[in-house]
Design brief:
With 197 residues, the protein is an all-alpha fold. The protein has a domain of 79 residues. It is 53% helix and 0% strand. The protein contains six helices and no strands. Helix 4 runs antiparallel to helix 5. The protein is extended and about 85 Å long.
Length: 197
């Protein structure tokens, strides 16, 4: 074993302090009286009215988010993603020739992912003999996301997809109710008032 560390720690505070020192040593701006007078036809120095173009309603609705990628950018990105995924799949098959092509990801897989995540956050799947780790607030957020997905896809699902969604949402909510009831039963009861004699 060598004494040489395998990584290097850089203290960013030192870099920031050096940048601040450089900024303090920068020359002060020239006072307006010392500046040369503007040439004829140039605007005079000083405050000016700045008129900005009205923002589009879409930009205001998005809360100032950057513009969405263009269709051409999206297509190029998707092609690069697909090529990268194919290379990864080829590497996996080279290591395990018996492995077939992975099944296509479907809407049911998405719903099941949310459902399983919620159950794991509620302590399911803990190794036997170990205390389950419960993230009740995380489970609630996951179930709420599943409910948002149900609301946003309402009317656009096949019967099988709709049944999968409703069953997953029902089961996740029931598990949440059972867990929260158990938590409230095991909560510390209030101290009963003592009779004064």
């Amino acid at each position: 074993m060598t004494d040489k560390p395998k990584f290097e720690v850089i203290d960013r505070r030192k870099i920031k302090a050096e940048e601040e020192q450089e900024n303090q040593q920068a020359p002060a701006p020239v006072a307006p009286e010392q500046q040369a007078p503007p040439a004829p036809g140039e605007p005079k120095p000083g405050p000016r009215l700045v008129v900005s173009e009205p923002a589009s309603e879409a930009a205001e609705a998005e809360g100032g988010l950057p513009p969405a990628p263009t269709a051409k950018e999206s297509e190029a990105q998707k092609a690069a993603y697909d090529a990268s995924a194919q290379r990864l799949e080829d590497l996996v098959r080279a290591q395990n020739p018996a492995a077939g092509a992975p099944p296509a990801v479907t809407f049911e897989n998405l719903v099941q992912q949310f459902y399983v995540s919620a159950l794991i956050q509620m302590g399911a799947g803990a190794p036997e003999g170990q205390q389950p780790r419960v993230d009740i607030m995380g489970a609630r957020a996951t179930i709420d996301m599943l409910a948002v997905l149900e609301e946003k896809t309402r009317g656009n699902l096949s019967q099988v997809e709709e049944n999968t969604m409703q069953a997953a949402l029902f089961e996740a909510r029931m598990a949440f109710l059972e867990l929260t009831n158990m938590i409230s039963l095991h909560a510390v009861p209030p101290v009963p008032p003592q009779d004064k004699q």
